[in-house]
From TrEMBL:
<dbReference type="InterPro" id="IPR015424">
    <property type="entry name" value="PyrdxlP-dep_Trfase"/>
</dbReference>
<dbReference type="InterPro" id="IPR004839">
    <property type="entry name" value="Aminotransferase_I/II_large"/>
</dbReference>
<dbReference type="InterPro" id="IPR051326">
    <property type="entry name" value="Kynurenine-oxoglutarate_AT"/>
</dbReference>
<keyword id="KW-0808">Transferase</keyword>
<feature type="domain" description="Aminotransferase class I/classII large">
    <location>
        <begin position="32"/>
        <end position="378"/>
    </location>
</feature>
<dbReference type="GO" id="GO:0030170">
    <property type="term" value="F:pyridoxal phosphate binding"/>
</dbReference>
<keyword id="KW-0032">Aminotransferase</keyword>
<dbReference type="InterPro" id="IPR015422">
    <property type="entry name" value="PyrdxlP-dep_Trfase_small"/>
</dbReference>
<dbReference type="GO" id="GO:0005737">
    <property type="term" value="C:cytoplasm"/>
</dbReference>
<dbReference type="Pfam" id="PF00155">
    <property type="entry name" value="Aminotran_1_2"/>
</dbReference>
<comment type="similarity">
    <text>Belongs to the class-I pyridoxal-phosphate-dependent aminotransferase family.</text>
</comment>
<dbReference type="InterPro" id="IPR015421">
    <property type="entry name" value="PyrdxlP-dep_Trfase_major"/>
</dbReference>
<keyword id="KW-0663">Pyridoxal phosphate</keyword>
<dbReference type="GO" id="GO:0016212">
    <property type="term" value="F:kynurenine-oxoglutarate transaminase activity"/>
</dbReference>
<protein>
    <submittedName>
        <fullName>Putative succinyldiaminopimelate transaminase DapC</fullName>
    </submittedName>
</protein>
Length: 390
């Protein structure tokens, strides 16, 4: 029998970032600090979405839903893609409901990556990407985005591609940097994907949270990309229901069939009544999506000035839940140690950006703060930061 400590896969997967989040949350609790480390909102979300799930539970629809998701959610996902982006997906054959975007990512990578295949991912990246590639016995190839803009370096992407490259993972709006990839950047990525016949898995969970008039452009809308792209999103970030774990993947039938084959042996199915809530959320009028976006943008604008007043240099925050702050002007050379001290010293918790890098050299002073909290919580955090001696 192979024991966990002797399993090379377990060894590879340890330390992919999750531990640091738990540690910072524990420190926040221990010191009664405001937790801006983990990226989950503390507001209830749209009432119509919550009511639909409550009604489904009360009506007894609490057993296994259909394997690919309840019909009304698959239809709502397809209608959402058509309404917002002009993308046409068949809800019967090209849409799959998953246990959050996290499962959609895992199922897609496990389905599409063979042992030894290389998977390109823009670094810094959500830690699940590295773990999923390890599970698939692939090789993760980081393509670094440099602070403070975190913009695409097309030459660096081209240089990263080899004959073993199979899949590229694209996340926009980007976690943890807040960068929203421009059309020019996406077109450059598409050129590389076509030239090297790469499949593309896109993580678009922050799709409705692009700020300051920026446009979120789904990669599948670019010429020639729909047929080679698995588009992933979820209800959690938009509707403040991260605990429901309702996500989805959209792609051409052959790709969705492959992802479904893997997904059925992960969770099988999940969140039946919550799927009904997500279906209602996706049919909300456009002005409600705008209000959600504008609320997050206003929350960003509460926190970022306070970080600057405290002495941080803050990267542009173009979308999503997070702000990246450079603590180097404060004399910080070890962001992990700094974050361990922050809850007790200041009463605010954050996470070091090193958790999002395969190789954290050159980013030792970068810290990520979450602003997806109620305005009054952010005001309190801002006051603590401004009044602290860092």
């Amino acid at each position: 029998m192979i024991r966990p400590d002797g399993n090379p896969l377990v060894t590879r997967m340890r330390g992919f970032g999750t531990t640091i989040f738990a540690e910072m949350s524990a420190l926040a609790l221990a010191h009664d600090a405001i937790n801006l480390g983990q990226g989950f909102p503390d507001s209830p979300g749209p009432q119509a979405v919550l009511d639909a799930a409550i009604a489904a539970i009360a009506a007894g629809r609490n057993q296994y839903p259909p394997g690919r998701g309840i019909p009304q959610l698959r239809e709502a996902i397809a209608a959402h893609e058509q309404y917002w982006y002009g993308l046409d997906y068949d809800p019967e054959t090209e849409v799959l409901v998953t246990a959050g975007a996290t499962e959609a990512l895992a199922a897609s990578i496990l389905a599409l990556v063979e042992p030894g295949d290389e998977v390109l991912a823009f670094e810094p990246f959500y830690d699940a990407y590295a773990a999923d590639v390890a599970l698939a016995q692939g090789a993760l190839v980081p393509v670094r985005l440099d602070a403070p803009s975190f913009a695409l370096d097309e030459a660096r992407l081209k240089d990263a591609v080899t004959e073993r490259s199979r899949v590229l993972i694209l996340n926009s709006p980007h976690n943890p940097t807040g960068h929203v990839f421009s059309r020019a950047e996406l077109e450059a990525i598409a050129r590389v994907a076509k030239e090297h016949d790469l499949l593309v898995i896109t993580d678009e969970v922050y799709e409705h949270l692009a700020f300051d008039g920026r446009e979120h452009i789904p990669f599948a809308t670019l010429p020639g990309m729909r047929e080679r792209t698995v588009t992933i999103s979820s209800a959690g970030k938009t509707f403040s229901t991260t605990g429901w774990k309702v996500g989805w993947a959209c792609a051409q039938r052959e790709l969705i069939d492959a992802v479904t084959t893997t997904k059925q042996f992960l969770t099988y199915v999940n969140a039946g009544p919550f799927q009904e809530g997500a279906a209602v959320g996706l049919t909300l009028p456009a002005h409600e999506f705008a209000a959600i976006r504008d609320g997050l943008q206003a929350q960003r604008d509460l926190l970022v000035p306070a970080l600057r007043d405290a002495g941080f240099e803050v990267s542009p925050v173009e979308g999503g839940y997070f702000a990246v702050a450079d603590a180097a002007p404060l004399g910080v050379t070890d962001a992990a140690a700094f974050c361990r001290e922050l809850p007790e010293r200041v009463g605010v918790a954050a996470v070091p950006m090193s958790a999002f890098y395969a190789d954290a050299s050159g980013v030792a002073s970068l810290v990520r703060f979450a602003f997806c909290k109620r305005p009054e919580v952010l005001v309190a955090a801002a006051n603590r930061l401004r009044n602290a001696t860092l």
